[in-house]
What does this fold into?
Amino acid sequence: MKVLIDRAVLRGAIGRLLFSPAPLEASRLQMAGKSVFVRDATGVVREVSALHAAIISFAIINTAGSYGLAYITDEMVLPGANLGLAFLLTIPFVIINALAYAMMTETMPRSGGDYIWMSRMLHPAFGFGFEWVVTIFQALFFGTFAAFTINSSLASGFGSLGLVIGNNSLVGLGQYLATNAGVLEIGTLMIFIVFLLDILALKHYLKIQLFLYAFVLLSIILFLAVFLSTDNAGFQTSFNSFFASYNVTYTGVISKAQSSGFSNPGLVTFGPATLLAIPYSFFAIIGWTWPALIGGELKNPRRAMRYGCIVTGVVAALLVALPGFLIQQTLGADFLNAAAYLTASGTYTAPVPFNLYYLAMVINRNPVLDALLVVGLTFQGMILVSAGTLVYSRVFMAWGFDRALPSKFADVSERFHTPTISVAVFALLLELGLVLTLYAGVVFSQINITLILILLYAFVGLAQMLLPYRRKNIFDISPFKNAKIAGVPTMTLVGAVNFVVFMILSVFCLYYPSLSGPTGASALAFMFGMFVLGVLIFYASWFYYKRQGIPVELAYKEIPPE
It folds into this structure.
């Protein structure tokens, strides 16, 4: 017998499944007439201590990766820049930004962080639309970083280790992992493992993260010990003895760059190169603000943000700055500039890629310790992707909780107290970023994640500046309500400084795409198009719930329940 289903009935059933409140929730709405959140509590648990918040920040700051990537990229674009000084001078910017996020999180410690603040202080549609761009771009970028971890950390790491210890099997494995097929296979496996980690109960995830980060920290200590144990003459001897059979020498690298037309400036401590390197160095270590996105899971928001955000940001800047002085002294500025130039032009012919971690392996030549360097660098990439998935899945959950997206996104596992649907969706976006990176190149050619994050910091500053005036009911319960300078709330002053500083830095991003990312018409159009899409999604959800008799706009006049 043929069964006919009315399409309108089917659409209504699907809509009720995705958007409609549960029976108990509906009755509560009818009785209270004002509460519009999905339920009375988020369902997540406050498990994140100050230590765990700091590790989440360190994971996303990617300290270990900065030694291999940020230093070299700095010298590729700005040869002669004083690396240590540039990173050291980022500290005032770090403190300004971290202070704003700490104050806002202490005032509104809720899942979703900057989305909650912008949607309450500026405008709900703007807050959702801009955070939509940030979150989607971050998901694609973290997918790209999964590919980078496999290609750079594993492939180059195994290949370099194989050359150092004379193991052809490791060299062959590294060569396979460098292919698109190898990156896709292992990258997909890595994303699946990340998904499994992030749907675990948070207390279990945090223990695993701590265990993995111990290896990262060990590799950082080993890396620094290697370069502390040698001087420039010792480095030249180690470099030449290993690479001479490949017709690559220390002085040969410098000469080859000069014969290719490179004008080597040496070390320029005070000059335009170092000055321009300051904002890039700031971009390179962004990550200390991410605990704010899991504000609803911080055990003690005040302690977690002061140590996991402000202190961690400053310590991370120091951990990258101080070795910068050491690296330029040990390698020699002329060599560092020349090798970076040849790498950028694709003419660096040494069999081991120009990555400071791998040069440490060449100097060290201890199989066990060299293997620990590879493992630490790989784990750094893995916990960066897993920590990113952790914090941004909470943004999806916050959207569902506010009904800016279907309420299913706010579902939390009764067993694990984690938003499993939101984690799964973010993991799928990671996979999309991985595939697009390998086969379309879209992420690097069309997405300027640096500009997006700098604009985000500016708008968070604007939201903070307006908080005492736009949402007095929220400001009155803030621990900073009585803090004033010359009669002006400190909240407003800190927000104003952030807004001005990061709007200026956003202009810098536009003028220097080599330091920030693509700024062409197509990249900016893509960014704006994603924002418009986010706004349209917000209003589609708003109109749907309005037809259900749920005034979504009321959610944005208060802080969501814990």
